[in-house]
Amino acid sequence: MTATADTPTSLSPAPISRLRVPELDELSTAGVRGFFTRQQREEGLTSNWFRALALNEGDLERLNGYLLPLLGADGRGGLSAREREVIATVVSGENRCAYCHTNHANKLGKVAGDWSFGQRVAIDHRQVAELTDRERALGDLAVLVNNHPQDLGDTHFDALRALGLDDHQILEAISIAAFIGATNRIGIALSIPPNPEYTGIPQ
User: Fold this and answer.
1) Helix, strand, or coil here: 109?
2) By CB neighbour count within 10 A (0-12 exposed, 13-18 middle, 19+ buried), where does 65 fall?
3) Confidence category of residue 182, pLDDT binned at 50, 70, 90
4) DSSP run (H or E) holding 134
5) Taking a C-beta distance cutoff of 8 angstroms, is the pair 94, 146 a contact?
6) What is the sign, positive or negative, of the torsion defined by CA atoms of 83, 88, 94, 99?
7) Number of alpha helices (DSSP H) and beta strands (DSSP E) in the chain
8) Pairwise CA distance, residues 17 & 49, whole Å
């Protein structure tokens, strides 16, 4: 049957992954179950990306042990929450990962208090006037780490230091860019859709 303007389209949710996604009550690892419980309580959802990776619970638990602190979920010092999300948003935009692009653009908008800011950074950070010089430099670094890491040279590091970033923060920025690039590739390979909550203008 050919769809017409009068034919209703299906509103059933898209599959979360190209692979099997376990139900939450199937999960046997306490740390993973606790993660989803906290996410549901704090955000009112369970993210599709983490749900897809729950197929291998041990890998997800180990990944969370590195990824979540790297993005500042533990209240660590170093780069600010906004700087971390600028890096994550720029990389996800570069890689055109549907899930990560919308997720990090949404989070950056919340951190900045301006939903459109996150969306514009995701499209092209070079066109966003509100970025500080330091944020713009971190965005540029993120693009290089993601696309052309072999082009990084001492002049790039000197320029970052001149903006007040110390070596710990520079390493943190590189690690975020590189690791978000890896998460993008997982999301793209599994065709993980963004949660609907990440895609609309907040009311």
Assistant:
1) helix
2) exposed
3) very high
4) helix 133-147
5) yes
6) negative
7) 9, 0
8) 8
CA angle 193, 58, 42 (to 5 degrees): 55
CA atoms of 102 and 80, how far apart (whole Å): 20
Instruction: Spell out the alpha helix ranges (H) of 54-125.
Output: 57-70, 81-95, 98-112, 115-124
- Give pLDDT tens digits for 73-84: 666 779 999 999
d(CA 54, CA 168): 31
- Span 79-137, pLDDT tens digits: 999 999 999 999 999 999 999 999 999 999 999 999 999 999 999 999 999 999 999 99
Does residue 118 come out as left (phi exceeding 0), alpha (psi in the -120 to 50 range) or beta? alpha
Q: What is the mean pLDDT of residues 192-202?
A: 86
Amino acid at 173: A
**Contact yes or no for 118/105 (Cβ under 8 A):** yes
Spatial CA neighbour of 80 closest among 72, 88, 69, 70:
72
DSSP character at residue 18 = S
Give the separation between CA 180 and CA 136, rounded to whole angstroms. Answer: 18
pLDDT value of position 203: 56
